[in-house]
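Our preliminary data section would be incomplete without showing what the modeling component actually yields. Below, a chain of 309 amino acids is followed by its predicted structure, encoded as tokens that our downstream tools consume directly.
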Amino acid sequence: MIGRIIEIAEDKRHLSLYRGFMVVKETGAESKEIGQVPIDDIAAVIGNSYGLSYSNNLLVAFAERGIPFALCAANHNVAGFLLSTNGNLYQSKRIEAQIAAKQPTHKKLWAAIIKNKLEQQASTLEAINQPSAPLIYLSKKVKSGDSENLEAQGAKKYWSLLFQNNFRRDKNADGVNSLLNYGYTILRATTARAVVAAGLHPSIGLHHSNDSNAMRLVDDLMEPFRPMIDLQVWLLNKAGKNTVNPETKRALVNVMYLDMQTTSGASPVMICLQKLATSLAQIYLGERDKLELPQKRIPAILAENQFQE
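Predicted structure:
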């Protein structure tokens, strides 16, 4: 399903449920309604403001429909999620199979994800006329479990080629880093929905193993799609738009609706994530052998300079 990603970014807002709609009201001395959105049209909600409140009935409606509610902290980083406990009719069976999966299976799947991520990074560099050969070379050397940590080696080459000027990825920094944070927040929320909808448990990961991370599988599966966000941030930065504001937020949200090629044809990123999560559940159940990963080519629309300086 393709739905709307809603961000609440203005301070002093209250969200409630009324006859199948999420109602947004301004709080304070002059309480007034800002707008309404049909619940069934929502794919995810991002809470990114101060003084935000919401009714329990609304949160229950989100949970019943598998709509993730992402709670943002400093610099647009996700601090938590509200997720459904009943995401799929076959959830119990799939989670049991997920728990029972052996380490060699996880290593094989992680290798496929990293290989694809490196290929996607190479496509991003190709789109901006930067050398992609180093990433393509590494993608062909990925072994089970990425035992040689080629993901990290690729990242070092990738960031230096993408943003130049000794760029360093820093979640606490402003500018390009804050745009990346926001884009990844959107991507993470969309991936979380796909994971839960596929009947999988988001904390049982393939590779990510931080004990304090309840979204390990989400962070695993979103890896091949990060370069989509990276390229949009590059385009924004090239046009001199390097702060998080309504215009850049819209551009980053729009990435979730852009097409990527898959083995079954072109589909929006949001649908590609759903296909990937479902394919993982099917692998756990012995119904298929390979993940449904996006193909190497980044959509041409992202390679165009959409933003004028």
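Residues 94 and 104 are 18 Å apart (CA to CA). The chain has two domains: 4-67, 91-303. Preliminary results of this kind motivate Aim 1 of the renewal.
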